Amino acid sequence: MKINLSGHHVDVKDSIKEHLNEKFSKIATHFPTLISLDVTISKEHGEYQVELRTNYEGSRISASGTNDVMYPAIAIAKKKLEAALKHRKGQLKADKHEKPVSTTPEIAHEIVQEMKLV
What we know:
The structure is a single chain. The protein is of the alpha+beta class. It has one domain: Double Stranded RNA Binding Domain (2-Layer Sandwich), CATH 3.30.160. Helices cover 47% and strands 30% of the residues. It is built from three helices and four strands, in the order E-H-E-E-E-H-H.
């Protein structure tokens, strides 16, 4: 998974990139269809805001976290992103396991007669 990192009023250093790669390696193994993750770290009014955005199975998923310290803000956003990805994965699994539509006995009898089973 490719991580696109950008900073707004924050110097993006190699240590931050390594931390993000370490944090999001687990997500990459659990959700192998994720191609890229956009991370924006900004600091406004003394508070760090971390925004995460990605595409997963046809839907745009985003999460954000805020804290006075950068690393806990990243952890908060990561936790929210994991929850959103799990929710989306559950929706996709539920769509695959729809209950079959039952027909009334009269209609079922007509369908069997049309099949002309010998």
